[in-house]
Amino acid sequence: MQNRLSTVAIVIVALIAVLYQFVFKSLLFDSLGYGRRTTNISAFNVKCQKLQDPGLEACEDMWLHEPSGLLYLACSDSQHRPSWVPSLVHFNVSGRPMSDHIAVLDTRSDKPLKSRLQWLRVENFSGNNGDGTLNLHGIDLREDTASGRLQLLAINHRPPLDPTTGAELDPKSIGANSTIELFEIEMDSGKPAMKHIKTYADKVIDTPNRVAWVGEDAFVFSNDASSKTGIRRAFDVFLGCGSVGYCNDHDCHKAYEKGFIFPNGLVHGRDGLIYVPSSVTGEVQVFSITPKQHLKQVDSFQVPYPIDNLSVDRNGDIYAATFPNLHKLLKSAEDPFKVNPASAVFKIRKVTETSEAEIRREGRYLVEKIMEDDGSVLPGSTTALHDAEGGRIYLGGTFSPFVTVCELGQD
Ligand SMILES: *[C@@H]1O[C@H](CO)[C@@H](O)[C@H](O)[C@H]1NC(C)=O
Ligand SMILES: *[C@@H]1O[C@H](CO)[C@@H](O)[C@H](O)[C@H]1NC(C)=O
Ligand SMILES: *[C@@H]1O[C@H](CO)[C@@H](O)[C@H](O)[C@H]1NC(C)=O
Ligand SMILES: *[C@@H]1O[C@H](CO)[C@@H](O)[C@H](O)[C@H]1NC(C)=O
Ligand SMILES: CC(=O)N[C@H]1CO[C@H](CO)[C@@H](O)[C@@H]1O
Question: Could you list the residue ranges forming a coiled coil in this record (predicted)?
Fold first, then answer.
Protein backbone atom coordinates (compact mmCIF):
# COMPACT_ATOMS: atom_id res chain seq x y z
CA MET A 1 0.00 0.00 0.00
CA GLN A 2 2.69 2.37 1.18
CA ASN A 3 4.63 1.43 -1.83
CA ARG A 4 1.79 1.99 -4.20
CA LEU A 5 1.04 5.40 -2.68
CA SER A 6 4.57 6.58 -3.08
CA THR A 7 4.58 5.28 -6.63
CA VAL A 8 1.47 7.32 -7.29
CA ALA A 9 3.07 10.35 -5.66
CA ILE A 10 6.19 9.94 -7.75
CA VAL A 11 4.14 9.63 -10.90
CA ILE A 12 2.18 12.78 -10.03
CA VAL A 13 5.33 14.73 -9.26
CA ALA A 14 6.90 13.49 -12.45
CA LEU A 15 3.80 14.47 -14.39
CA ILE A 16 3.83 17.96 -12.94
CA ALA A 17 7.51 18.25 -13.74
CA VAL A 18 6.88 17.13 -17.28
CA LEU A 19 3.96 19.51 -17.60
CA TYR A 20 6.11 22.32 -16.25
CA GLN A 21 8.92 21.45 -18.59
CA PHE A 22 6.84 21.13 -21.70
CA VAL A 23 3.62 23.01 -21.15
CA PHE A 24 3.67 25.67 -18.43
CA LYS A 25 7.28 26.66 -18.90
CA SER A 26 6.90 27.05 -22.62
CA LEU A 27 3.62 28.85 -22.02
CA LEU A 28 5.12 31.26 -19.49
CA PHE A 29 8.40 31.99 -21.16
CA ASP A 30 8.05 31.17 -24.84
CA SER A 31 4.45 32.06 -25.46
CA LEU A 32 3.57 34.69 -22.88
CA GLY A 33 7.15 35.95 -22.93
CA TYR A 34 7.56 36.75 -19.24
CA GLY A 35 11.08 37.99 -18.64
CA ARG A 36 11.98 38.21 -22.32
CA ARG A 37 14.21 41.21 -23.05
CA THR A 38 13.56 42.95 -26.30
CA THR A 39 16.19 44.62 -28.45
CA ASN A 40 16.03 48.38 -28.88
CA ILE A 41 14.87 49.32 -32.35
CA SER A 42 17.95 51.54 -32.74
CA ALA A 43 19.93 48.32 -33.23
CA PHE A 44 18.14 47.77 -36.55
CA ASN A 45 18.68 49.70 -39.73
CA VAL A 46 15.19 51.21 -39.92
CA LYS A 47 13.60 54.65 -39.59
CA CYS A 48 10.07 54.62 -38.26
CA GLN A 49 7.38 57.21 -38.07
CA LYS A 50 3.90 57.21 -36.60
CA LEU A 51 0.96 57.93 -38.87
CA GLN A 52 -1.57 59.57 -36.65
CA ASP A 53 -4.94 60.74 -37.83
CA PRO A 54 -8.39 60.57 -36.31
CA GLY A 55 -9.79 57.28 -37.47
CA LEU A 56 -6.45 55.65 -38.26
CA GLU A 57 -6.77 53.61 -35.10
CA ALA A 58 -6.89 49.95 -34.22
CA CYS A 59 -6.06 49.09 -37.83
CA GLU A 60 -5.67 45.41 -37.36
CA ASP A 61 -5.27 44.30 -40.91
CA MET A 62 -4.14 45.77 -44.22
CA TRP A 63 -3.60 44.93 -47.85
CA LEU A 64 -1.49 46.67 -50.49
CA HIS A 65 -2.52 47.07 -54.11
CA GLU A 66 0.96 46.86 -55.64
CA PRO A 67 0.30 48.58 -59.00
CA SER A 68 -1.23 51.73 -57.50
CA GLY A 69 0.45 51.75 -54.09
CA LEU A 70 -2.94 52.12 -52.42
CA LEU A 71 -2.94 50.58 -48.96
CA TYR A 72 -6.30 49.32 -47.67
CA LEU A 73 -6.62 49.27 -43.88
CA ALA A 74 -9.36 47.79 -41.71
CA CYS A 75 -9.65 50.27 -38.85
CA SER A 76 -11.74 50.61 -35.73
CA ASP A 77 -11.48 52.82 -32.68
CA SER A 78 -9.01 52.09 -29.92
CA GLN A 79 -11.26 53.30 -27.15
CA HIS A 80 -14.15 50.97 -27.90
CA ARG A 81 -12.26 48.08 -29.46
CA PRO A 82 -11.46 46.38 -26.14
CA SER A 83 -15.19 46.02 -25.35
CA TRP A 84 -15.87 43.78 -28.32
CA VAL A 85 -13.14 41.26 -29.12
CA PRO A 86 -14.85 37.93 -29.65
CA SER A 87 -11.48 36.20 -30.13
CA LEU A 88 -10.52 37.19 -26.56
CA VAL A 89 -14.06 36.62 -25.21
CA HIS A 90 -14.66 40.36 -24.65
CA PHE A 91 -18.40 40.60 -25.20
CA ASN A 92 -19.70 44.02 -24.18
CA VAL A 93 -22.17 44.72 -26.98
CA SER A 94 -23.14 48.19 -25.79
CA GLY A 95 -19.48 49.24 -25.76
CA ARG A 96 -18.65 47.88 -29.22
CA PRO A 97 -17.12 50.19 -31.85
CA MET A 98 -19.78 51.62 -34.15
CA SER A 99 -17.54 53.26 -36.73
CA ASP A 100 -15.31 50.50 -38.14
CA HIS A 101 -14.32 51.34 -41.68
CA ILE A 102 -11.84 50.75 -44.45
CA ALA A 103 -9.21 53.43 -45.05
CA VAL A 104 -7.31 53.86 -48.30
CA LEU A 105 -3.87 55.41 -48.01
CA ASP A 106 -1.89 56.53 -51.05
CA THR A 107 1.59 55.28 -50.14
CA ARG A 108 3.29 56.65 -53.25
CA SER A 109 2.40 60.27 -52.55
CA ASP A 110 4.50 62.72 -50.50
CA LYS A 111 1.55 64.93 -49.62
CA PRO A 112 0.49 65.43 -46.00
CA LEU A 113 -1.28 62.45 -44.49
CA LYS A 114 -4.72 64.08 -44.55
CA SER A 115 -4.75 64.58 -48.30
CA ARG A 116 -3.65 61.05 -49.16
CA LEU A 117 -6.09 59.30 -46.85
CA GLN A 118 -9.63 58.41 -47.89
CA TRP A 119 -12.40 56.42 -46.29
CA LEU A 120 -14.58 54.00 -48.22
CA ARG A 121 -18.29 54.72 -48.09
CA VAL A 122 -20.30 51.55 -47.41
CA GLU A 123 -23.12 50.97 -49.87
CA ASN A 124 -26.08 48.65 -49.72
CA PHE A 125 -25.12 47.04 -46.44
CA SER A 126 -27.79 46.76 -43.77
CA GLY A 127 -25.57 45.75 -40.84
CA ASN A 128 -27.49 44.70 -37.74
CA ASN A 129 -31.16 45.65 -37.63
CA GLY A 130 -30.34 48.20 -40.31
CA ASP A 131 -27.62 50.09 -38.38
CA GLY A 132 -25.14 49.60 -41.22
CA THR A 133 -22.24 48.89 -38.83
CA LEU A 134 -19.35 46.49 -39.28
CA ASN A 135 -17.07 45.03 -36.62
CA LEU A 136 -13.97 44.30 -38.63
CA HIS A 137 -11.19 41.81 -38.06
CA GLY A 138 -9.16 40.14 -40.83
CA ILE A 139 -9.55 41.26 -44.45
CA ASP A 140 -8.24 40.17 -47.84
CA LEU A 141 -8.59 41.67 -51.29
CA ARG A 142 -8.12 40.35 -54.81
CA GLU A 143 -8.16 42.03 -58.15
CA ASP A 144 -10.56 40.40 -60.57
CA THR A 145 -8.57 40.05 -63.79
CA ALA A 146 -11.64 40.22 -66.04
CA SER A 147 -13.32 43.32 -64.60
CA GLY A 148 -10.29 44.94 -62.94
CA ARG A 149 -12.49 45.34 -59.85
CA LEU A 150 -11.17 44.84 -56.34
CA GLN A 151 -13.10 42.36 -54.24
CA LEU A 152 -12.86 42.69 -50.48
CA LEU A 153 -13.57 39.93 -47.97
CA ALA A 154 -13.99 41.12 -44.40
CA ILE A 155 -14.59 39.18 -41.23
CA ASN A 156 -17.46 40.84 -39.39
CA HIS A 157 -18.16 40.04 -35.75
CA ARG A 158 -21.84 40.92 -35.49
CA PRO A 159 -23.65 41.07 -32.18
CA PRO A 160 -26.08 38.13 -32.08
CA LEU A 161 -29.73 38.96 -32.78
CA ASP A 162 -32.86 36.90 -32.75
CA PRO A 163 -33.51 36.16 -36.45
CA THR A 164 -37.27 36.67 -36.17
CA THR A 165 -37.72 39.45 -33.61
CA GLY A 166 -34.36 41.21 -34.04
CA ALA A 167 -33.98 41.30 -30.25
CA GLU A 168 -30.44 41.29 -28.87
CA LEU A 169 -29.22 37.93 -27.64
CA ASP A 170 -26.56 37.41 -24.99
CA PRO A 171 -23.14 36.91 -26.63
CA LYS A 172 -21.70 35.58 -23.37
CA SER A 173 -23.79 32.47 -23.84
CA ILE A 174 -23.94 32.12 -27.63
CA GLY A 175 -20.95 34.15 -28.81
CA ALA A 176 -20.69 36.67 -31.61
CA ASN A 177 -22.49 36.11 -34.88
CA SER A 178 -19.37 36.10 -37.03
CA THR A 179 -19.84 36.34 -40.78
CA ILE A 180 -17.67 37.00 -43.80
CA GLU A 181 -18.77 39.90 -45.99
CA LEU A 182 -17.99 40.31 -49.67
CA PHE A 183 -17.74 43.86 -51.03
CA GLU A 184 -16.76 45.30 -54.37
CA ILE A 185 -14.61 48.41 -54.32
CA GLU A 186 -15.32 51.34 -56.59
CA MET A 187 -12.47 53.83 -56.61
CA ASP A 188 -13.19 55.63 -59.88
CA SER A 189 -16.26 57.63 -58.92
CA GLY A 190 -14.43 60.35 -56.99
CA LYS A 191 -16.29 59.16 -53.91
CA PRO A 192 -14.62 55.81 -53.25
CA ALA A 193 -17.05 53.22 -52.01
CA MET A 194 -17.42 49.56 -51.14
CA LYS A 195 -20.64 47.95 -52.29
CA HIS A 196 -21.94 44.99 -50.38
CA ILE A 197 -22.42 41.89 -52.54
CA LYS A 198 -22.96 39.00 -50.18
CA THR A 199 -22.83 37.73 -46.59
CA TYR A 200 -21.33 34.32 -45.92
CA ALA A 201 -23.01 33.01 -42.76
CA ASP A 202 -22.34 29.35 -42.04
CA LYS A 203 -21.81 27.19 -38.98
CA VAL A 204 -18.29 26.42 -40.24
CA ILE A 205 -17.56 30.18 -39.89
CA ASP A 206 -17.37 29.91 -36.12
CA THR A 207 -14.50 31.93 -34.60
CA PRO A 208 -13.01 33.42 -37.77
CA ASN A 209 -9.83 35.43 -37.51
CA ARG A 210 -8.43 36.00 -41.00
CA VAL A 211 -9.52 35.22 -44.49
CA ALA A 212 -7.51 34.64 -47.69
CA TRP A 213 -8.69 34.46 -51.28
CA VAL A 214 -7.58 31.30 -53.05
CA GLY A 215 -9.35 31.82 -56.36
CA GLU A 216 -12.34 33.38 -58.02
CA ASP A 217 -15.29 32.92 -55.58
CA ALA A 218 -13.20 30.80 -53.20
CA PHE A 219 -11.39 31.57 -49.97
CA VAL A 220 -9.98 29.97 -46.82
CA PHE A 221 -10.20 31.34 -43.29
CA SER A 222 -8.90 30.44 -39.84
CA ASN A 223 -11.13 29.70 -36.84
CA ASP A 224 -8.83 30.62 -33.96
CA ALA A 225 -10.59 28.81 -31.08
CA SER A 226 -12.45 25.58 -30.33
CA SER A 227 -15.79 27.33 -29.90
CA LYS A 228 -17.33 30.78 -29.55
CA THR A 229 -17.85 30.46 -25.78
CA GLY A 230 -17.86 27.80 -23.11
CA ILE A 231 -15.56 25.82 -20.87
CA ARG A 232 -13.58 24.03 -23.62
CA ARG A 233 -11.99 27.37 -24.54
CA ALA A 234 -10.20 27.45 -21.18
CA PHE A 235 -8.25 24.34 -22.27
CA ASP A 236 -7.56 25.44 -25.83
CA VAL A 237 -3.99 26.39 -25.08
CA PHE A 238 -3.26 22.91 -23.69
CA LEU A 239 -5.41 20.75 -25.90
CA GLY A 240 -5.07 22.70 -29.13
CA CYS A 241 -7.91 24.27 -31.02
CA GLY A 242 -9.07 25.83 -34.22
CA SER A 243 -9.48 24.93 -37.85
CA VAL A 244 -9.22 26.23 -41.37
CA GLY A 245 -12.42 26.48 -43.38
CA TYR A 246 -12.95 26.73 -47.12
CA CYS A 247 -15.86 28.51 -48.79
CA ASN A 248 -16.85 28.75 -52.42
CA ASP A 249 -19.89 30.19 -54.11
CA HIS A 250 -22.36 27.67 -52.72
CA ASP A 251 -21.05 26.46 -49.36
CA CYS A 252 -18.38 26.23 -46.70
CA HIS A 253 -16.67 23.24 -45.17
CA LYS A 254 -13.84 22.46 -42.74
CA ALA A 255 -10.67 22.01 -44.75
CA TYR A 256 -8.34 21.00 -41.88
CA GLU A 257 -8.70 20.77 -38.13
CA LYS A 258 -5.90 18.66 -36.70
CA GLY A 259 -3.13 19.91 -34.45
CA PHE A 260 -3.71 23.66 -34.51
CA ILE A 261 -3.17 25.92 -31.50
CA PHE A 262 -4.81 29.31 -32.09
CA PRO A 263 -4.34 29.47 -35.85
CA ASN A 264 -4.26 33.14 -36.68
CA GLY A 265 -3.57 35.43 -39.59
CA LEU A 266 -3.15 32.92 -42.42
CA VAL A 267 -2.05 33.86 -45.96
CA HIS A 268 -2.12 32.45 -49.45
CA GLY A 269 1.52 32.45 -50.59
CA ARG A 270 2.73 33.33 -54.07
CA ASP A 271 3.69 29.65 -54.33
CA GLY A 272 0.01 28.68 -54.03
CA LEU A 273 0.48 27.25 -50.54
CA ILE A 274 -1.46 28.25 -47.43
CA TYR A 275 0.61 29.42 -44.44
CA VAL A 276 -1.11 29.16 -41.06
CA PRO A 277 0.69 30.73 -38.05
CA SER A 278 0.03 29.96 -34.39
CA SER A 279 -0.38 32.89 -32.03
CA VAL A 280 0.79 30.70 -29.16
CA THR A 281 3.67 28.56 -30.37
CA GLY A 282 5.05 30.58 -33.28
CA GLU A 283 4.87 27.55 -35.53
CA VAL A 284 3.82 28.09 -39.13
CA GLN A 285 2.12 25.13 -40.81
CA VAL A 286 2.27 24.99 -44.58
CA PHE A 287 -0.49 23.39 -46.64
CA SER A 288 -1.39 22.67 -50.22
CA ILE A 289 -5.00 22.67 -51.38
CA THR A 290 -6.25 19.32 -52.65
CA PRO A 291 -8.57 19.00 -55.67
CA LYS A 292 -11.40 18.27 -53.19
CA GLN A 293 -10.67 21.62 -51.52
CA HIS A 294 -9.17 20.24 -48.35
CA LEU A 295 -5.76 21.12 -46.97
CA LYS A 296 -2.81 18.78 -46.93
CA GLN A 297 0.14 19.62 -44.71
CA VAL A 298 3.38 19.76 -46.68
CA ASP A 299 5.77 21.50 -44.31
CA SER A 300 6.16 23.55 -41.14
CA PHE A 301 8.71 25.85 -39.57
CA GLN A 302 9.25 27.77 -36.38
CA VAL A 303 9.45 31.51 -35.73
CA PRO A 304 10.90 32.30 -32.28
CA TYR A 305 7.90 34.31 -30.99
CA PRO A 306 4.12 33.82 -31.06
CA ILE A 307 2.85 35.07 -34.41
CA ASP A 308 -0.08 37.14 -35.13
CA ASN A 309 -0.54 37.64 -38.76
CA LEU A 310 1.42 36.96 -41.91
CA SER A 311 1.57 38.96 -45.11
CA VAL A 312 3.12 38.30 -48.50
CA ASP A 313 5.04 40.88 -50.51
CA ARG A 314 5.55 41.24 -54.26
CA ASN A 315 8.62 39.01 -54.19
CA GLY A 316 6.75 36.23 -52.44
CA ASP A 317 8.56 36.79 -49.14
CA ILE A 318 6.40 36.48 -46.04
CA TYR A 319 6.41 38.96 -43.18
CA ALA A 320 5.31 38.01 -39.70
CA ALA A 321 4.21 40.37 -36.95
CA THR A 322 5.05 38.78 -33.61
CA PHE A 323 4.78 39.49 -29.90
CA PRO A 324 7.90 39.07 -27.79
CA ASN A 325 5.71 39.63 -24.69
CA LEU A 326 2.25 38.23 -25.35
CA HIS A 327 1.18 38.92 -21.76
CA LYS A 328 1.66 42.65 -22.38
CA LEU A 329 -0.41 42.52 -25.54
CA LEU A 330 -3.19 40.94 -23.53
CA LYS A 331 -2.85 43.83 -21.06
CA SER A 332 -3.00 46.39 -23.85
CA ALA A 333 -6.34 44.83 -24.78
CA GLU A 334 -7.62 46.29 -21.50
CA ASP A 335 -5.97 49.68 -21.80
CA PRO A 336 -4.70 50.45 -25.31
CA PHE A 337 -3.69 54.06 -24.59
CA LYS A 338 -1.42 53.22 -21.65
CA VAL A 339 0.10 49.84 -22.40
CA ASN A 340 2.04 49.64 -25.62
CA PRO A 341 3.42 46.15 -25.98
CA ALA A 342 6.63 45.14 -27.68
CA SER A 343 6.62 43.81 -31.20
CA ALA A 344 9.05 42.19 -33.58
CA VAL A 345 8.90 41.61 -37.31
CA PHE A 346 10.35 38.59 -39.07
CA LYS A 347 10.99 38.07 -42.74
CA ILE A 348 10.54 34.54 -44.05
CA ARG A 349 12.10 33.55 -47.34
CA LYS A 350 11.54 30.25 -49.03
CA VAL A 351 14.76 28.60 -50.10
CA THR A 352 14.54 27.49 -53.70
CA GLU A 353 18.09 27.33 -54.99
CA THR A 354 19.76 25.09 -52.44
CA SER A 355 20.02 21.34 -52.81
CA GLU A 356 17.47 18.98 -51.32
CA ALA A 357 20.10 17.67 -48.89
CA GLU A 358 20.78 21.16 -47.57
CA ILE A 359 17.08 21.87 -47.28
CA ARG A 360 16.68 18.69 -45.27
CA ARG A 361 19.45 19.87 -42.96
CA GLU A 362 18.62 23.57 -42.66
CA GLY A 363 14.94 23.68 -43.48
CA ARG A 364 13.22 25.18 -46.48
CA TYR A 365 12.48 28.52 -44.84
CA LEU A 366 14.94 31.20 -43.76
CA VAL A 367 13.59 33.18 -40.81
CA GLU A 368 15.23 36.54 -40.13
CA LYS A 369 14.34 39.16 -37.52
CA ILE A 370 14.29 42.55 -39.21
CA MET A 371 13.10 44.76 -36.38
CA GLU A 372 12.14 44.67 -32.76
CA ASP A 373 10.98 47.30 -30.33
CA ASP A 374 9.99 47.50 -26.69
CA GLY A 375 6.80 49.34 -27.55
CA SER A 376 8.15 52.88 -27.68
CA VAL A 377 8.06 53.23 -31.48
CA LEU A 378 6.11 50.41 -33.04
CA PRO A 379 2.46 49.84 -32.29
CA GLY A 380 1.73 46.54 -30.53
CA SER A 381 1.85 45.23 -34.04
CA THR A 382 -0.55 42.57 -35.12
CA THR A 383 0.14 43.08 -38.82
CA ALA A 384 3.31 43.94 -40.73
CA LEU A 385 3.14 44.53 -44.45
CA HIS A 386 6.10 45.04 -46.76
CA ASP A 387 5.94 47.36 -49.73
CA ALA A 388 8.82 46.05 -51.83
CA GLU A 389 8.71 48.96 -54.24
CA GLY A 390 8.82 51.68 -51.57
CA GLY A 391 11.17 49.69 -49.27
CA ARG A 392 8.82 50.28 -46.37
CA ILE A 393 7.02 48.27 -43.76
CA TYR A 394 3.57 49.25 -42.52
CA LEU A 395 2.55 48.15 -39.07
CA GLY A 396 -0.86 48.17 -37.47
CA GLY A 397 -2.22 46.80 -34.24
CA THR A 398 -5.56 45.51 -33.04
CA PHE A 399 -5.65 47.99 -30.18
CA SER A 400 -3.04 50.50 -31.24
CA PRO A 401 -4.10 54.16 -31.54
CA PHE A 402 -1.81 54.67 -34.56
CA VAL A 403 -0.21 53.07 -37.62
CA THR A 404 3.58 53.07 -38.08
CA VAL A 405 5.60 53.15 -41.26
CA CYS A 406 9.27 52.14 -41.26
CA GLU A 407 11.81 52.82 -44.00
CA LEU A 408 14.18 49.92 -44.40
CA GLY A 409 17.80 51.00 -44.67
CA GLN A 410 20.09 49.56 -47.33
CA ASP A 411 22.54 47.06 -46.03
C1 LIG B 1 16.58 52.95 -27.34
O2 LIG B 1 17.56 53.71 -28.00
C3 LIG B 1 17.29 55.09 -28.04
C4 LIG B 1 18.34 55.76 -28.91
O5 LIG B 1 19.56 55.13 -28.84
C6 LIG B 1 17.28 55.64 -26.61
O7 LIG B 1 16.98 57.01 -26.63
C8 LIG B 1 16.21 54.89 -25.83
O9 LIG B 1 16.21 55.30 -24.48
C10 LIG B 1 16.45 53.39 -25.89
N11 LIG B 1 15.34 52.71 -25.24
C12 LIG B 1 15.52 51.76 -24.35
C13 LIG B 1 14.27 51.17 -23.75
O14 LIG B 1 16.60 51.36 -24.02
C1 LIG C 1 -19.81 48.18 -21.61
O2 LIG C 1 -19.58 49.34 -22.39
C3 LIG C 1 -20.33 50.45 -21.92
C4 LIG C 1 -20.14 51.57 -22.93
O5 LIG C 1 -18.77 51.82 -23.17
C6 LIG C 1 -19.86 50.84 -20.53
O7 LIG C 1 -20.59 51.94 -20.06
C8 LIG C 1 -20.06 49.64 -19.60
O9 LIG C 1 -19.53 49.93 -18.33
C10 LIG C 1 -19.41 48.40 -20.17
N11 LIG C 1 -19.79 47.25 -19.37
C12 LIG C 1 -18.91 46.43 -18.85
C13 LIG C 1 -19.45 45.26 -18.10
O14 LIG C 1 -17.69 46.59 -18.97
C1 LIG D 1 -28.69 46.30 -53.01
O2 LIG D 1 -28.99 45.00 -52.48
C3 LIG D 1 -30.20 44.47 -52.90
C4 LIG D 1 -30.46 43.16 -52.18
O5 LIG D 1 -29.49 42.86 -51.26
C6 LIG D 1 -30.20 44.30 -54.40
O7 LIG D 1 -31.44 43.81 -54.83
C8 LIG D 1 -29.91 45.64 -55.06
O9 LIG D 1 -29.78 45.48 -56.44
C10 LIG D 1 -28.62 46.25 -54.51
N11 LIG D 1 -28.45 47.60 -55.03
C12 LIG D 1 -27.35 47.97 -55.64
C13 LIG D 1 -27.27 49.39 -56.04
O14 LIG D 1 -26.43 47.21 -55.85
C1 LIG E 1 -26.23 36.18 -38.11
O2 LIG E 1 -26.16 36.98 -39.26
C3 LIG E 1 -26.84 36.46 -40.38
C4 LIG E 1 -26.56 37.37 -41.58
O5 LIG E 1 -27.02 38.65 -41.34
C6 LIG E 1 -28.32 36.35 -40.06
O7 LIG E 1 -28.98 35.78 -41.14
C8 LIG E 1 -28.50 35.51 -38.82
O9 LIG E 1 -29.87 35.52 -38.44
C10 LIG E 1 -27.69 36.05 -37.67
N11 LIG E 1 -27.78 35.18 -36.51
C12 LIG E 1 -27.76 35.63 -35.28
C13 LIG E 1 -27.87 34.63 -34.18
O14 LIG E 1 -27.61 36.80 -35.00
C1 LIG F 1 -6.27 40.23 -39.09
C2 LIG F 1 -5.86 39.22 -38.12
O3 LIG F 1 -5.78 38.07 -38.45
N4 LIG F 1 -5.58 39.61 -36.93
C5 LIG F 1 -5.16 38.72 -35.90
C6 LIG F 1 -3.76 38.97 -35.69
O7 LIG F 1 -3.42 38.44 -34.43
C8 LIG F 1 -4.16 38.94 -33.31
C9 LIG F 1 -3.56 38.49 -32.02
O10 LIG F 1 -3.49 37.13 -31.93
C11 LIG F 1 -5.52 38.46 -33.41
O12 LIG F 1 -6.32 38.90 -32.32
C13 LIG F 1 -6.02 38.94 -34.68
O14 LIG F 1 -7.17 38.28 -34.81
Answer: none
Q: Going by CATH, does the domain composed of 41-408 fall within 2.120.10.30?
A: yes
Residue 122's DSSP bridge partners are: 194
For residue 118, the SS3 value is strand
83 lines ligand 4 (CB under 6 A): no
CA of 95 to the centre of ligand 2 (A): 5
Give the pLDDT of residue 31: 53
Alpha carbons 96 and 158: distance in angstroms, whole number: 10
126 ligand 3 Cβ < 6 A: no
Q: Give pLDDT tens digits for 332-363.
A: 556 656 666 778 899 999 987 766 777 776 77
Residues with Cβ within 8 Å of 8's Cβ and at least 6 positions away in sequence, in order, are: none
User: What residue ranges do the domains of the chain occupy?
Assistant: 1-31, 41-408
| Residue to substitute in 88, 94, 170 for testing ligand 2 pocket (most ligand atoms within 8 angstroms of CB) | 94
pLDDT digits (tens, 9 = 90+) for 125-178: 999 999 999 999 999 999 998 888 999 999 999 999 999 999 999 999 999 999
> How far, in Å, from the CA of 217 to the mean position of ligand 4?
21
How far apart are the C-alpha atoms of 101 and 89, rounded to whole Å?
22
pTM, entire model: 0.87
Asked if residues 136 and 122 have their Cβ atoms less than 8 Å apart, the reply is no
Residue nearest to atom 7 of ligand 2 (CA): 95
